[in-house]
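Hi R.,

As promised on Friday, here is the backbone we talked about, encoded as C-alpha cells. Could you run it through your design pipeline when you get a chance and send me back a sequence?
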C-alpha cells in the first residue's frame, strides 16, 4: 500500500474502535485483536479515566516524561484522551495539555470525555502529527503511546516533534520496533499494520531517526518483548512457518525512549 492508503486504513480502523470503545475499554477485544495485546495497566495512575482507556498503548510514556507543574504537554495520537488526562494530573491547573489525533471519531470521543469532567486546560485537535496544528517552540514535553509506528514518515514525525518543542524541552515516546525480520506475510497484513506491528521499523533505524532529527541525551528507558498469540499468527502462517518464527532470533519489542531538544535550538540557530 502507498502512504495515502496506509493512513486511510489506520484512520478507518481507529474510527471503528472509537465507536466500539465500551467493548475495548473493558478488555473484551484483547484476545482477538493485535492492537489490544500490548497495553499496560494505567488504573493506579493519578488522572486515569477508564472511559478514555481503549487499551491501545504499548507503554506508559508519562512514567518517564518528567512532566512538571505548569508544563505545556503535547500528546501525539491522543485517541480518547487517556495519556492526556494522566499528563493533566501532573501538569496541574496551571499547565496545558494538547492532544492531536487524525481520527474524527477519536477526537470527538476525547472532547466528550474532557467536557464530562470539566477540564478546561486540555485541548483536543483534529490534525496530522506529520504536520502538527501547533506552532514551533511551544511545548515543554511531547509524549506519544504506540502511534508513530502507524504512520509512514517516521523521520518527518521526529522532525515535527523537534519543531514544536521549546529549546530545552524533551519528549517521551513508547513505540513498537522490530529486531531481526518479520515474515513478509505479516508485514503485508492490514491487521498487523493497524495492530502496530507491520508498520514498525528496525530498532536501530528508529534510533537513528531520532538522532538525525537533532535530539540529544537520547535514552531507551524501558524495553519489553511483545508476544503475538499463536491464534492470531496462525491466520497468516502455516504450522511450520509459525514454529520457525517463534524459534528465530527476531522479535517485536516495545521501547520507551526519551530525548532532549538542545537548549540552544531557538529560532535562527543552525540546529533548526
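Update: got your reply. Pasting your designed sequence below so it's all in one thread:
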Amino acid at each position: 500500500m502507498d502512504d495515502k492508503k496506509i493512513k486511510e486504513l489506520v484512520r478507518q480502523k481507529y474510527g471503528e474502535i472509537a465507536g466500539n470503545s465500551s467493548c475495548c475499554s473493558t478488555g473484551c477485544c484483547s484476545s482477538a485483536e493485535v492492537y489490544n495485546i500490548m497495553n499496560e495497566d494505567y488504573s493506579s495512575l493519578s488522572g486515569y479515566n477508564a472511559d478514555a482507556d481503549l487499551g491501545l498503548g504499548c507503554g506508559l510514556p508519562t512514567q518517564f516524561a518528567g512532566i512538571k507543574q505548569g508544563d505545556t504537554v503535547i500528546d501525539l495520537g491522543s485517541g480518547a484522551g487517556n495519556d492526556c488526562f494522566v499528563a493533566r494530573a501532573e501538569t496541574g491547573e496551571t499547565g496545558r495539555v494538547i492532544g492531536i489525533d487524525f481520527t474524527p471519531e477519536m477526537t470527538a470521543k476525547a472532547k466528550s470525555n474532557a467536557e464530562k469532567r470539566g477540564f478546561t486546560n486540555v485541548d483536543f485537535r483534529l490534525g496530522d502529527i506529520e504536520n502538527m496544528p501547533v506552532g514551533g517552540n511551544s511545548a515543554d514535553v511531547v509524549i506519544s503511546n504506540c502511534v508513530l509506528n502507524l504512520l509512514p514518515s517516521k523521520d518527518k514525525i521526529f522532525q515535527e516533534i523537534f519543531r514544536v518543542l521549546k529549546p530545552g524541552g524533551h519528549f517521551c515516546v513508547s513505540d513498537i520496533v522490530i529486531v531481526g525480520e518479520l515474515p513478509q506475510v505479516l508485514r503485508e497484513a492490514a491487521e498487523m499494520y493497524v495492530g502496530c506491528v507491520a508498520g514498525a521499523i528496525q530498532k536501530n533505524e528508529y534510533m537513528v531517526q531520532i538522532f538525525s532529527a537533532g535530539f540529544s541525551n537520547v535514552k531507551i528507558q524501558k524495553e519489553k518483548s511483545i508476544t503475538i498469540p499463536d491464534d492470531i499468527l496462525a491466520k497468516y502462517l502455516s504450522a511450520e512457518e509459525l514454529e520457525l518464527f517463534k524459534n528465530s532470533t527476531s522479535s517485536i519489542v516495545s521501547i520507551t525512549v526519551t530525548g532532549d531538544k538542545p537548549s540552544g535550538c531557538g529560532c535562527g540557530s543552525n540546529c533548526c
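One thing I noticed while checking it: The first helix runs from residue 3 to 19.

Thanks again,
M.
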